[in-house]
Amino acid sequence: MNNSKKGFIPVMLTPFNNDGSIDYKTLTDLTELYLKSGVTGLFANCLSSEMFELSETERLQVTKHVVDVVAGQVPIVATGTFEGTIAEQADFTKKIYGTGIDAVILISGLLAKETDSDAVFVDNVHQLLDLTPGIPTGFYECPVPYKRVLTAAQLEDFVNTGRVIYHKDTSLDINQIKAKLSVVKNPDFGLYDAYMVHAIESLKAGSAGLSCIQGNFFPELIVWICDNYNDASKADELAAVQRFLESNMGVMHDVYPVVAKYALQKRGLPISNFTRREVGDFTPIVKYAVDQLQTEYDMLQSELSF
């Protein structure tokens, strides 16, 4: 999932009705909002989607719904590895690929136990690839159930199979990103950075784009960064955007994804605050912080004129 244009692949939310059922109508609206903002792909059925709180059937239904709404406008990836043996994970990988997505994402922390060696992890990855012939894949260094960060050598090995086209990096370390980019030469592969603190530096180093939770608040802003990161005439504006994202990182992570859903409500999206995941209370203090965040963003948006 790489091209000459840097791109933004948002980690999608799952809208719920207040009774806890999935709100497919609002999922359509949300998908269309992402597309309208200029994203170059979508990551459905991910941690932001509350994938661990969805049933297997719901994971497939949500992903298929997104595929149907997008109708080929941009590539779609979705998680395919959950609990169970490697054979069981391979079986669901095949099922979710059957929804029509472009690549199945493998959760690094579910392909080996936290106490397992790197050798066990690498062997399990190759076993899964062998059990899913022909299916394009990618990796996500998801923090749940634990974060297993790929080394540059591991990523090089996996990409060299010809099966890995995507990597969502959550190492939070620009030097690790540069190391990965230095050894992976496949033009079909793209590394997408989740950490906005070094977003611009990562893009300049060769990352294919960004894939971050901030895009669930202001997707147009992340697209703007990808479009303008290397424009010397916009250096001051880029610095202002970087400061805005860094200074508000705590606000956007506090009781997430509830805060993101509330922010989308303020944009007019009819999305409930309901989440199946226990993330803490959406207190008046948290609400006020998001209100202030929106005010700051409105000012920034007027200055950037996008």
From TrEMBL:
Highest taxon of the lineage: Bacteria
Recorded GO MF terms: 4-hydroxy-tetrahydrodipicolinate synthase activity
Claim: Hydrolase is one of the keywords in the record: no
Signal peptide residue numbers: none
Residues the record marks as active site: 140, 168
SMART domains assigned: DHDPS
Keyword Lyase applies: yes
Pfam families, alphabetized: DHDPS
Keyword terms, alphabetized: Lyase
PANTHER family assigned to the protein according to its UniProt record, in alphabetical order: 4-HYDROXY-2-OXOGLUTARATE ALDOLASE, MITOCHONDRIAL, DIHYDRODIPICOLINATE SYNTHASE
Stated family: Belongs to the DapA family.
This protein's name: Dihydrodipicolinate synthase family protein
Organism of this sequence: Flavobacterium flevense
Lineage: Bacteria, Pseudomonadati, Bacteroidota, Flavobacteriia, Flavobacteriales
Recorded name of the encoding gene: dapA_1
